[in-house]
Amino acid sequence: MTQFDPGENSASIASVTDRVRPVRIGAPVIAAHFLGENAAFVGAEENVFLVSGQGEVTPAAVHGGGILCAASDGARLVMGGDDGRLVSLDAKGEVTLLATDAKRRWIDNVALHPDGAFAWSVGKTAFVRSGRGEEKSFDVPSTVGGLAFAPKGLRLAIAHYNGVTLWFPNMVATAEVLEWAGSHLAVTFSPDNKFLVTAMHEPALHGWRLADSRHMRMTGYPGRVRSMSWSAGGKALATSGADTVILWPFGSKDGPMGKEPAMLAPLQARVSAVACHPKQDILAAGYSDGTILMVRIADGAEILVRKNGGAQVAGLAWNSKGTLLAFAAEDGDAGLLEL
Hints:
By secondary structure, the protein is an all-beta fold. Helix content is about 0%, strand content about 55%. The protein contains no helices and 30 strands. The protein has strands spanning about 15, 20-25, 30-35, 40-45, 45-50, 55-70, 75-80, 85-90, 95-100, 110, 120, 125-130, 135-140, 145-150, 155-165, 175-190, 195-200, 205-210, 215-220, 230, 235-240, 245-250, 260-265, 270-275, 280-285, 290-295, 300-305, 315-320, 325-330, 335-339. The strands form 6 sheets. A 7-stranded antiparallel beta sheet has the order 3-4-5-6-7-8-9, with no helix packed on it. The protein has a 6-stranded antiparallel beta sheet with strand order 14-15-16-17-18-19, with no helix packed on it. Strand 3 (about 30-35) and strand 4 (about 40-45) form a beta hairpin. The protein is globular, with a radius of gyration of 19 Å. The model is unreliable at about 1-10 (pLDDT under 50).
């Protein structure tokens, strides 16, 4: 793998590496989120590491084993583990047990709703607990691969083999199934509630326009897509899985149908994580060689945040104001960049 040398493109690449506050987690990390103004680095096992803006690290014990999934809405971080427990962590570091699987099976998917509801899955069963504490469950034909709440109403997308089931937990109506052959994993609704996209087990995305279930084939990736992020306003979907950031256009009523994606920030390394800025048309991209770039979507201009030479980037997150970027590599080497 060729090493990335900013000198090759020094005319176009500025660097802010000297403004990064290093954070030493000291344990493998699988994801980065924010809880209020504290960064929350999710460890591969047992602990979440809360980091203040000054770089002070406070571990919080959340599981008795491996942490398999995590989702945050900025106020709470909800995680499932191989100990069969679903737990929540708040910005103060307080841990709450939300659910325990009766058979101690793995809880490997989780999703949060703005009204306080949350969803999780065990095997073929998806569970939803409303903001009022009512719990319901739904079985799909095969193991659940991913969960996502629609931005409007209480509607849950459950990804599984050969498609996605759309379930309204508060309605008696039959669940709607969007079919497409293959194994569907991570799933996401567009912010305007018009499109649904899954990352597949094969190196591809698949999408549907929800108004008419029209298919959107989003292929051409050399590797599996493990990270997806909607741009501010939902006009584009940034994804990992290639040696550039793949950016699919969603600004029109047809979404990416018949259109080519934009390809930004090419490197001789695979993109492993993407995180779009919450307010501006900027994104952060992490790579398999440890490089992190900030990229302006309009023209692809790049700023170097972290040089290569380390482990693969595992997590990227912006705080709600877009003034802080948190990042972590798989080996726990992390940092904070204040903008």
